[in-house]
Design a protein that fits this description.
This protein is α/β, with parallel strands linked by helices. The protein has twelve helices and five strands. This is YprB ribonuclease H-like domain-containing protein. It comes from Bythopirellula polymerisocia.
């Protein structure tokens, strides 16, 4: 599938692409085998670009494809490397860049990994070193910038794909929950109506009262978004590895519903200048030096 990505080649627009298809040029192999069928004005540039694509494919240089393929062809990257993809989502204490990350959940080959502030959040950096392709929904706008700020790193050490814009090119616009509804996907009843504001309440209940039910619920809520990302990715590339009826079977369980969801209004976080907070900040600065 990825070898059918031709829209990014120099001089190739919709009309010329349709003409190439009519001439039997629809893959990278066709370009190299039938160069005489390519218009002279774009022949050299197209052949050179396809050579670079073959080289990137051979060396599994996913970042090259992310940087060069046309937006409408980015789904082909996902189709080619779906089994190597790590899906992730984050929860924060607000939308401001100053609001800390509270939870990160990842999913790779059927297994969840959870990273929690004040516990093991910094271990996410170690995981990034091992990731071949990181996938999110709206991560380019929100999750990735927040990760870069939180861990004081200039860029991710791995390629990243944002499903939101791939979905947009397939006629699926809006947020994750809106797209899930359009696909007929219903979340488990215990998290069906949980909002971002309530996710803040859950974290505050865990920190202030050590409410384990709130902690479990927050992780489950975040994991549901990660699982939805994987499900959406499969739909975008035409695969059905996760059955819709069993979509939620692998979610982290919860023992009880936290009382906080029936209570208060979320309070803005207070600045934390504790020795523990300063120690975490120093640790992250040191960890980030590996990518400086």
């Amino acid at each position: 599938m990825i070898n059918e990505a031709l829209k990014h080649c120099p001089g190739i627009g919709p009309v010329r692409l349709a003409k190439l298809h009519s001439e039997g040029i629809s893959t990278w192999q066709d370009v190299m085998q039938y160069p005489q069928r390519i218009p002279a004005g774009c022949r050299f540039g197209m052949i050179e670009e396809i050579r670079r694509c073959f080289t990137a494919l051979e060396h599994e240089d996913i970042q090259y494809f992310i940087d060069h393929l046309a937006s409408a062809d980015k789904w082909r990257i996902l189709a080619n490397y779906l089994d190597d993809a790590t899906f992730f989502d984050i929860e924060t204490l607000g939308l401001s860049s100053a609001d800390p990350i509270t939870v990160i959940v990842t999913w790779y080959q059927g297994k969840f990994s959870t990273f929690v502030e004040h516990e093991n959040l910094d271990d996410f950096l170690n995981l990034l070193d091992q990731v071949k392709l990181l996938v999110s929904f709206n991560g380019s706008t929100f999750d990735v910038p927040r990760v870069l700020d939180a861990f004081h790193i200039p860029s991710l050490p791995c390629p990243h794909l944002d499903l939101r814009w791939m979905a947009y090119h397939r006629g699926l616009a809006g947020g994750m929950k809106q797209i899930a509804n359009s696909l007929g996907i219903v979340r488990p009843a215990d998290i069906a109506d949980v909002t971002g504001e309530q996710a803040i309440l859950l974290w505050q209940a865990w920190i202030a009262k050590q409410d384990h039910a709130a902690r479990e619920h927050l992780i489950r809520y975040c994991a549901a978004d990660v699982l939805l990302s994987r499900f959406l990715a499969e739909r975008l590339v035409g695969k059905d590895e996760i059955e819709e009826g069993k979509l939620w079977d692998t979610l982290p369980p919860i023992a009880s519903r936290p009382t906080v969801l029936t209570g208060f209004t979320a309070q803005p976080p207070k600045p934390n200048y504790s020795p523990h907070k300063r120690s975490l900040k120093r640790k992250r600065l040191l960890l980030s030096m590996r990518w400086a």
